Amino acid sequence: MPNIRHHNTHKLIQQPLEKIATSTYDFSIQQIIREAWSYVSGCKLAFFLSHLLNFCLLLALFLLMALLFLANQSIAVLIYLISIFIFNVIGLGFIPITLKHLNGKPVKVIEDFFSTLNRFGILFVTNILLPLIIYVSAIVIFLIMGFIAGIIGQHNLIFIALPICILSMLFLSIAFILVNWIILDYPEAKIWLAIHTSFIIVKQHWFKFFWLLCFILLINTLASLPLGIGLIWSIPFSYLIIGCTYKHIFHIQIKTEDNII
Fold first, then answer.
1. Mean pLDDT, to the nearest integer, of 126-146?
2. Is residue 33 predicted with pLDDT exceeding 60?
3. d(CA 7, CA 261)
4. pTM for the complete prediction?
5. 170-199, pLDDT tens digit by residue?
6. Of 95, 110, 104, which is closest to residue 39 (Cα–Cα)?
7. Fewest CB within 10 A of the end CB: N or C in the chain?
8. Neighbours of 120 (CB within 10 A)
9. CA dihedral 180, 250, 44, 42 (to 10 degrees)
């Protein structure tokens, strides 16, 4: 008889969004950072090639804009504004690459990077809607505080309104950080469900997400100093930090057995 050995592996299973939105969770920043660093090995080339591809597309856009600007300035400006959102969507290709690497699946750079085009419409609308929500919320806060200042005659409140508006924009920007991850990971997710779920989830531990993002900003700043060589490690590390946090919240890890003869 052949000698059959059982090899334990782990598989990530999605949890339903409705369940996640009503549940509580917690995570350790140190544990997330250690786990993310353990995944850096083996994905640097995929991220490097993806960034190279993204850079080539961006360069092609600028060349096209230069030609259009010479032909018709108004059309060039309009196409440029639309192109910004298109490239924002394409740039989200790092998310499926990160999720596949975390799930132990082989990464196909071109196929995975452009896989965001499968949900292009919803991602395009989402990445227009999110800045609008953030900026409109800040404007509404500013107008309300200005109105209150006018009623009570305390015009000094206007100077307080500005930092409050900035803080509200910062709060919402971080609260919406998982929206695109949800849309790309859950094909059935609608825009408002993704926005609501990200807001509810991040709000529970907003300061932990804030410190994680501060850490990401710090390591990328330091990595860019010596001719940017360190970015080869820091950029995938940054995505993996968010990815590990996302995985910890939205996925459950189950143990599977593979029979090896």
1. 90
2. yes
3. 10
4. 0.83
5. 999 999 999 999 999 988 888 999 999 999
6. 104
7. N
8. 13
9. -150
Residue closest to 76 by CA, chosen among 59, 58, 63, 89 = 63
State residue 34's pLDDT score.
94
* pLDDT mean over 78-88: 76
253 forms beta bridges with 12
Residue 103, token pair as written in the block? 């799930």
Q: Look at residue 10 in the predicted model and tell me its pLDDT.
A: 54
At residue 255, the pLDDT reads 52
Percentage of the chain surpassing pLDDT 70? 88
The CA-to-CA distance between both ends of the chain, in Å, stands at: 10
Tokens of 88: 């924002």
Residues, the chain, total? 261
Q: Is 8 exposed, middle or buried (0-12, 13-18, 19+ CB in 10 A)?
A: exposed
Using CA atoms, how far apart are residues 23 and 37, in angstroms rounded to an integer? 28
Torsional sign, CA 57, 228, 180, 135: negative
Exposure string for 27-63, b = 16+ CB within 10 A, e = fewer: bebeebbebbeebbeebeebbeebbebbeeeeeebee
Is it the case that residue 219 has pLDDT exceeding 90? yes
